[in-house]
């Protein structure tokens, strides 16, 4: 069975975001193919996609390497998200479906419950699902794609401190959903802008040590998961 390039791309991207591959390090097709248990063809296609996304660069005499973003580039990503997430929420207020609302409301209920209990790990993943669903509710595949890429890159470049007031943060999520449900684009835009601005303040640039990177490499040796590809 030929493993799709997008699955290989996801696996490599996830490892780049997790810090498995050091910034500036070479990404050889042969080693990547062996690591993920695939041929070199999907690896080659995946590297082209990751280069287009900005995770990989091609250097003369070195080939594909993990990109080395500057602090300014990292700051630009946060600014872009602060502009685009409110736009996505405003569009969601106009285009959301009942299915989107059901998922968003369910995530808010779970988030508020976990916030009261202090389950920070759960809150981070729930927050990611919330914003992914909100972007999808915008009805714009282009905007959803850009926001998804921004979240991947920001997760790669930044570590996020746990919010000082998780209950308040999830109340803001609830306010966003209320505005989207009412079809109030301006309210959805304003509440999301405030929420994104507060969340941005918790981001800190990553400065991992060589030892920490080595631990991540040892703990993430895995092939591409093909279970979901059999359908």
Automatic annotation (TrEMBL):
Keywords: DNA-binding, Transcription, Transcription regulation. SMART domains: FCD, HTH_GNTR. The keyword Metal-binding does not apply. It comes from Streptomyces olindensis. Residues 220-231 have a biased composition (Polar residues). Residues 208-231 are annotated as: Disordered. Residues 2-69 form the HTH gntR-type domain. It holds the Pfam family GntR. This is GntR family transcriptional regulator.
